[in-house]
Each structure stands twice: as C-alpha cells, then as structure tokens.
Design brief:
The structure is a homodimer.
Chain A lengths: L2 H4 L6 H25 L4 E7 L5 H11 L5 E5 L5 H4 L5 H5 L7 E5 L4 H8 L5 H20 L3 E8 L2 H13 L9 H8 L1 H14 L7 E5 L3 H21 L34 H19 L8 E8 L5 H9 L7 E5 L5 H4 L5 H4 L8 E5 L8 H4 L5 H20 L2 E9 L2 H13 L9 H8 L1 H15 L6 E5 L3 H21 L9 H5 L17
Parallel strand pairs in A: 1-3, 1-4, 2-3, 4-5, 6-8, 6-9, 7-8, 9-10
Helix pairs in contact in A: 2-11, 6-10, 12-21, 13-21
Chain lengths: ~525, ~525
C-alpha cells in the first residue's frame, strides 16, 4: 500500500501558495454548504507513522476552515472517566453531529496496532480488534457519516531524517522523545502490522487514503484536495431515494408457539410473601453494591415490555435498594434534536455509567427493532442491521465488565386492558395512559413478532434476555430484583472477570410448550 | 438465537397437506418467474445440528420445484481435485448462475465450526475464518445473489430422541454412526461455538433463519414459506435504479510522480546477453518445476500491462521452459454468457490450477479495476469494493501454497506508438492491433491513475506487484522469467510453506525519484 508514498513527492512553494489560496476558499464554501445542508456529519481520521506531520495537517485544516464547526479530538491515554467505560466510549462522545466536521487524531486503530507491534496481543486478538473496527466503520457509513481516513506515510529513511530535524530545532525538540525513537526502531514491524490492517479496513465506502508525507506542501495539498473532492461529491449528490429493499424477509411465524406464548404469565405470589422476598432481595442487592469489588464493575439493566407491564414499578423496587448517588434512571423517549443528528446508538452510549454504578434504561436501544420497526420509523434495512449493531454494542459492554441484564416484562392482552381501564379511572394514574397506548395495543401481533425476533437475534450467552411473567406485579418485581442481584453477586464472585451468565437456563433446557420456561429459584 | 427453536412447534397432517399443496404451486411459479427474470441467482444454505432433517428438506425442495433448475451440492470430504485448490474453490464451482437455484448442504460454515468445537483451531483462527465467511457472503450479496441461510435446530433432548428413532428404524439405521453420537455428546460446545458465529454472520442482507426442526411438517412449511416470501419479494421488486454513489473519490494524483513514472523504462540488454540469460533461467525454472516438492505447490502468474507491452511474448518465454501438460494459458477477454451469469471472480476461480501446475493469466481479475473502471463498465462502488475482494481472493490462494506472481509490463507512450505502427506494417502482426488499442491509448492518463491505485491497493506482502520495465523486450522477458524462477525456488526451499516474498524489495527501500526502483539482480 505504500509504494507510491515511498517516492518523493514535492510541491514547490510558489505552487503551494497559489493552490492553497484557492483551496481555502473552496473548503470554506464546502464547509458552509455542509452546515446548511445538515444531512450528514464528516469524520476525518488522521493516522500514520510518527513525525509525518499529522499534527501540522490538523492545525492547517483548522486554519483553512472555520474552526467553530470543526471538532478536533486527540486521543492519548484515557482519562479516568474514559477508562471506566468501554474502549469506544470516548470516540462516541466525540462524534461530530450532522452538518459538522470531526477530526480524530489517533482513533480506534491506534491501540490495537501498537499493542500488536509490541507483542501485547496475539494474532487472534488482533483479528478480533480488526473485525470490531470493520463493523464500527460500517455502522458509521450505514448511518450516513462521510468517513475519510488519511494515513500519513514516510519511508524509514524519510522518518529518520524528519526525527533528526525535529530534534535539532530547539522549538520542536520536545516532540522527539524516547518513544519516537523506540517506534522508529520498530519501523518494519509497524509496516508488517499496518499493511494488512489498512487493507482489511479499506472498504468501498471508507478506503484508506495513503498520504506521502515527506514534503509539507505536498501532504497539505493532498489532504486538502481530497477532502474538498469528497465533500463536494457528497454535497452535490442529490439526496438518495430510499434504495429498493435488498433484505430478505424474516420468517413469519407459522404457529402461535413462541417464547412469549410459552410463558405462564400468571404466577402466584401473595402480598405477605412478596413483602418478605422484597426485603430479602433488596438487602442482598444493597450489600452486593457496597462490596469493594463492585468498584470494578458496573450494571446496565434494560427494561422493555408491553405498555402497562410495570417497568417503572419494577425499576423503583430495585433502586430503593441503592444509594441515589450510585444509579441513574434513563427514560428513553423520542430522540432530541441533538440525538437525531448522531448515529442511532449515540444516545445510549452517552448514558453508560462509570464503574461502581448502575444505569436503568426504561426502554432502550431495542426501540429500533420494536417501535421503529413496527411503526415504520426506519427502513427494513436499518432495523435488520440493528440486530448486529446491538450485539456488537453489548459485547463491548460485557467485555468491559458491565453486568448487562435485559428484561422483557410480558403481560397478557386481557391484563393490559384491565390496567389501561384502571389507569383511566384512577385520577393520579391518568397521565400514564395516552392515545398512543391504545394505538400500540391494536398492533399487538406485530409487536409480538418483533419481540420474538428480537429475543431470537439478540439473546446471547453473554447478554441473555430474561423474560418476566408480569401479570402478577409482585412476582415480576421479585424476579427482576432477584435476577439483578444474582447477576451482580456472580460478577463479584468472579471479581470483575466476565463469567457467562444464565447459560444453563437459556441454552440447554428444553422448554415444553405452555410451561413457564424460567422461574426465579425462590419460587420453586 | 435458539430460544424459539427450543420450543415444540408442530403442524398437524391435515394442515400440512393443505398448505403444502398450495405452497408447491406458488414455489413452482416463483421458480419459473426466476428463470424468466434471469436477473439474480438464489443460493440456499442448509445447515444445523445432526439429525434435524436437513437432507429430507433438500429432497422436499427438489420434489416441490422443478429439479432441473436446482443445483444441489453436498460438501463432504474434499475430492483430490478439490483438496489441491483453495478451500473455497469447490463452493465457487458449484455456484448457481442467474435464474437458477443452488442448494448447498454443508457449505463454508461447517469446517471452521467443527474444527473449533474439536479444538483443532484456536479462537484466533476461528475469528479469522468467521471474517472470511463474512466477506465472502458480503461479496455474494453485493454481486446480487439472493442468499438464504437456514439453520436447523433441535434441543438436546429432541436430538437424542431423533437419533434413537433413526437408529431403531432398519431403513434409516445407516444414518446414525459413531460420528453422530460423538457430536451429540458435544451438543453444548457446538451451541457455544455456533451461537456467536451465527450472530456475527447474520447481516441485514443475509440473516440466518433458525428453523425449529423437531416436527417434519413444521420445518418443511417453515422453510418453504420463507423461501417463497423471499423469492417473491425480490422478484416483485422492480430492478433497482443505480444507487447514488456513496463512495468517496480516490485521490487525484497531485503530481506526475508515481510508481510508473519512477521506472526507468529503457533497460539495456543486448541480444547475446539475452540469449545466455534466457537459457540459464529457463534451465533453472525447468529444474525447479521437476522438483518432487513442487507437487505441493502451484504457480499462478498474472500478466497485466500496457497494450503492446509484450505480455504474450513474455509468457511464451516462460512456458517454453515447461512441460505442456503442466501449465495452462488463460487469455482473459470479454466474459462469456455463462461467466456473466456469475459473480465477477467466478471466471478466475474456475481456472485455478491443481498442485504441481502453472497457470498463466494474460490479463486477469484486475480487469475490474483497470478496463472496467476506466471504461465505466461497472459502477464506482463495484470497482472500489473489488480491491478488497481481490485481496481476499489472493490471500486464499497464497494460504493454499499458490505461488502468486503479478507483473505489470510498462512501456512508454512513445514506445507504444512505435509498436502499434510496426504492427500495422507487418502482415502477420496486423491481427494484433485493433481500433480498441488506439482508443485505449487516448485514455493513457486514466489508465495510469488506475494502475497506480491498483498497485497501491493490492500490492501486499504475500502478493506484491512486480513492475517490469518493458521498453526493451529482452530485459522484460528475463526479469519475468527470473522473478518467477526465484519465487518458485524460494517456495521450494520452504517446502511448500509460505514465506513472505519480495518484502525487502517492496517495503523498506526508499525509491528515489526517477531511478529504477527494482532491477533483477542479474543486471547489476
């Protein structure tokens, strides 16, 4: 990939001055058109060998264009805030919204490449990291991001000269440390790792652009011109008519047997037994949350369910066991303007808790494959690819020692009707029932299919769904509490190490028709 | 992923009879519409646990539809023909053409899954294999294949019952061997490996469809109905208008410095020295090709170059050193009707040699990123993704101990003119010059850009390009011969093991402007 970049490309000063003057005007215009157009964000990745003028180029782009609409992010050692979230969290929080330009300096590529060169990770782990990068970038492109990836290259001899020159100049001497020279000695291993990596992460939508970086004029013009061409091409392309659907249909259920109908929704639990169980589990959870080892974990609990199934009530029974400074409730409604300007998962990434904390999502990222699917708020291709994107997202959480627990609270159609009517009658519950609830109810079957597909396509060993029989609120609340409590205790026992959870219950057990497939142990 | 499939889904006989009668008519109609439409092929993958009725379902599909337009392929142990080609060769040769249905029984998923479960490959190798499958399937979908993937699932208890039943029946007893029971004992490990694999290879365009397989009626209807719905959806969708271009532009060269202009095209070599070198290298190559260890290798040599650069002549000087039974010349021209009905790379896969043999491609798969790009025979998105597809293809060759050598024969524009004129004057050479050659010549610069992009994006450590200065035919022929000979000798020295070739020459050498970057050693 570096054949051309190894050659000496030069631009003389006069040509550079002339060209850059024109380029600045055109880039600034394009930037304003982008802002006006507001249909897509631009993300520029700046990567490559040490001493190749990456920083200077970033400075230049900020100088050429209006820096108020450019978000430049340099990613070095993670902050404590960042270290306590999954590795990609810091990239998500820095993503530019539609209409703006983001420049990432040392993005998701840096760490795996450096780790591989230094032998800190093996071939397999590197292949895994490469796959993660591929899927992340694919997702960004699918979400409409114009992703431009520049790789600044120097031959070994060029790099040596450049580092020497930087060292000699008193103004730049600070930039050449032992690290730079240590990396220089690893020039060949870096090339050996980078070459296949760049190749495998070069796609039609987001190819790596290798920039010959020895001459400052040449590299500046090369990046500037390509950026301009890419901006203009996207800006001047009329908005795409929705592409004809290339996704095959999911199967339509051939019977009424499914994970929901197989549940026995009415589970007995009387008030006195409920009160006792509540006390017991809340006590246990409180204790678990105050365990010192909990500082290496966090908990993300997702609550989905039929309207009126009692998600809020169940969450409250959990949070009562916890210190208010240690948890957050995230009620997910329609996205805000800021959220609509970002890739779909952005509004969930932003709420991920630090270690030692809990986050309770009252509705979640599953909206994409539930309400958005059923109501047609996104295309079939969008929600179909969301299954994979969600699994990638959740894998990232679990690998970062997030205890991820997902509940579907299920009630019967009759029970829902009873609760809706009750809500209409009781003064202080009236705000809880809207026309939308009644409309959703009419699409009961469509939602049921969507839920079954969701469970089938996103219940994984690391992040299984827990289906909660919720006709009896007491039972539902205890099952939720107990499930969270056990998951936390199990994670603590592993001292933050990830252990597969709920495997036996979800995988190898044959669930006979019409029998409850999963009861909390305290009920047996 | 198997939550729903674990439940007992049943269809009674009467319902089945009624439904299947209707389904057969609809499927047959769809199959004929597909044939008439002729715009896309259908590829059905049948996979899943042992004893889940995969074979019965394949039989049924053949019974329901017209088997003359269905190609069913079961992949067991590879034949000797297959074993001597890269692993995916046998799938490529069995791909259905446009308008037809192919059924693959045990496709590219089987081997990596079984190997992983049996511990024959580690996590890293499995991640690699998963990535290969993802890219292969993505390529098929991009090429318009309707890819339908059915995974037949049984719970462990269902599988045990099924194997017992098969064993009990004298007619089916032969189907249950020690292998089946050995796999049954590995039920949980299989699920642990398959679940993430299915998830990661489920895309919006080609999701896995899990089929609850315990009841023969249910599973037959489930597959039949989904197949029908998928066929109808694609058949009834009007042909897509070409999608607006979502690929950013490649950089336009900012100067005339590139890997081609950096070559010193005129290399001296007089006839007597040429004759001596020819004899020497032909002798060495002949010797190498008769080495017993050569039976574990094969050679694929790709010749691209300017019109009139002497590709044919260079190939002839190589083949003269070889036994005619051991090599094939593949002259690549416009694709045949059969080839147009297949994914792009199909027509090259079909010509891959067995071990112990040579294949010389006079033009090649690089047509996609050269003539097809320049002449607009395919969309930008098509040739942009081809870089990655080609690299994947070549990696597969190299891993299978194919010695892959790629030549670009470069002549100057003046030299080309001289040769064209000569061809017009010499009676027996007139057939070699056509209007097309003159037309291509007018696009010299566009071709030059395409060649530079090609070298940049497909010259890899394992399969580097060799640029041949070809103004002097003698020099060009000797460089080609010597390069092939050395590559074969090096591969023999590794006794079939892959060694990175040409690395030093391509990677770490700084190539000064205007100097030849690579000379054969015998010329120094």
């Amino acid at each position: 990939m570096f054949e051309s970049a190894q050659l000496l490309h030069e631009v003389d000063k006069a040509t550079y001055q002339r060209e850059q003057a024109r380029l600045r005007v055109d880039l600034l215009n394009a930037q304003y058109d982008l802002k006006l157009n507001g249909r897509f964000p631009v993300l520029i990745l700046i990567a490559g060998v040490e001493g190749a003028g990456k920083g200077e180029t970033v400075d230049l782009l900020n100088e050429w264009m209006d820096p108020r609409h450019i978000q430049t992010s340099a990613f070095g050692a993670p902050s404590d805030e960042e270290a306590e979230r999954p590795a990609h969290w810091r990239f998500w929080r820095a993503l530019p919204p539609k209409g703006k330009i983001g420049i990432f300096f040392g993005a998701w590529h840096s760490l795996p490449i450096v780790q591989r060169v230094l032998g800190q990770i093996d071939e397999g782990a590197f292949a895994h990291a490469t796959g993660e990068v591929q899927r992340l970038e694919q997702m960004l492109c699918d979400e409409g991001v114009l992703l431009l990836k520049y790789w600044f290259h120097l031959s070994k001899e060029q790099q040596r000269k450049r580092l020497k020159a930087l060292e000699k100049d008193p103004d730049t001497r600070w930039r050449v440390t032992d690290t730079e020279w240590a990396y220089f000695k690893l020039y060949e291993p870096f090339v050996e790792v980078c070459e296949p990596f760049l190749r495998q992460t070069s796609t039609a939508q987001a190819p790596w652009i290798v920039v010959p970086a020895a001459d400052p004029h040449y590299r500046a013009l090369a990046v500037g011109r390509h950026l301009l061409a890419a901006l203009r091409e996207r800006l001047d392309t009329p908005p795409a008519a929705p592409a004809p659907d290339a996704t095959p249909p999911l199967p339509v259920p051939a019977d009424r047997v499914n994970v929901l109908t197989a549940l026995e929704l009415d589970q007995p639990l009387e008030r006195p037994a409920y009160e006792r169980a509540l006390k017991k589990w809340q006590g246990r959870l409180n204790l678990a949350a105050r365990d010192p080892r909990f500082q290496n974990l966090s908990v993300v609990a997702v609550f989905e369910g039929n309207d009126g199934a009692g998600k809020g009530g169940a969450i409250r029974r959990v949070t009562r066991a916890l210190d208010a400074r240690r948890y957050a409730n995230i009620a997910v409604a329609a996205p805000t303007e800021e959220e609509r300007a970002q890739p779909y998962l952005w509004r969930f990434w932003r709420h991920l808790p630090r270690h030692g904390r809990f986050a309770f999502f009252d509705r979640s990222w599953y909206g994409r494959v539930l309400v958005e699917r059923v109501e047609g708020f996104c295309t079939e291709a969008d929600w179909m690819r969301a299954y994979g994107e969600i699994c990638d997202f959740e894998q990232a959480l679990v690998r970062h020692r997030v205890v991820l627990i997902k509940f579907w609270l299920a009630i019967s159609k009759d029970e829902q009707l009873r609760r809706f009517k009750l809500r209409e009658q009781v003064e202080f519950k009236r705000f809880k029932i809207t026309d939308e609830d009644w409309r959703n109810r009419e699409r009961w079957d469509a939602y049921e299919s969507a839920v079954c597909d969701m469970v089938e396509r996103t219940s994984t060993t690391a992040a299984p769904w827990t289906l909660v029989e919720a006709n009896n609120k007491y039972h539902a609340r205890i099952k939720v509490l107990a499930t969270i409590c056990r998951a936390v205790e199990q994670a603590l026992a592993g001292d933050g190490e990830r252990k597969p959870r709920g495997k036996a219950a979800r995988k190898s057990k044959d669930t006979p028709k019409g029998k409850p497939r999963d009861k909390p142990k305290d009920k047996r």
